[in-house]
Amino acid sequence: MSSSVAQSARPAAGRGKWKSVARDGLLSANPITRQILGICSSLAVTNRVDKALVMGLAVTFVTGLSNLFLSMLRKAIPSRTRMIAEMAVVSTFVIVFDLFLKGFAWDISKQLGPYVALIITNCIVMGRAEAYALQNPPLLSLLDGLANGAGYAMMLLIVGIFRELVGSGSILGFTILSPAWYERNLLLVLAPGAFFTLGALLWIFNTISPLPSEDKK
Question: Which of 93, 126, 177, 215 is the most exposed place for a label (fewest CB within 10 A)?
Fold first, then answer.
């Protein structure tokens, strides 16, 4: 009887771990709202929704596959050279995505400029590789990378939608707020608008779901 209970509890515990990894990356340990990582790119590419979307997809792609491959290789990577191995794997997937953009979405590639290439040094990608992929099995590492990338992409989209709508009166280039009656707020298109928008977003998310106080026992 006890053995059957233990066997039924194991799959439930496994499902709970998968849900926990996904929830952490998307919400409770979101790279932007909780860890304050990837801020430079989130400020630089969010004046338009299409740029924010592509940048979010790029980070999700690189983080997910880098985590997967580094987890598969974790037992073969010497501790002394792990940072070099991480950089090599991450840069490979960054180059693949960058070449894909240049081949199939040249306009977006030009608009994003160096920011896709700079994913190689993105703290989110390197942080998940170091903190999770090198200590956990491949599929969980893949989920962790995808969840953190999706959490980053979600924040970029929220900021991008607000900035493009209020700043330009459009979404994805389609006019939503007619210039006949809406006065566009050009501050939201400029760099200071990104700081104000992201700061307000961080305040909202951390007010709704504050971090647990370290003083509480």
Answer: 215
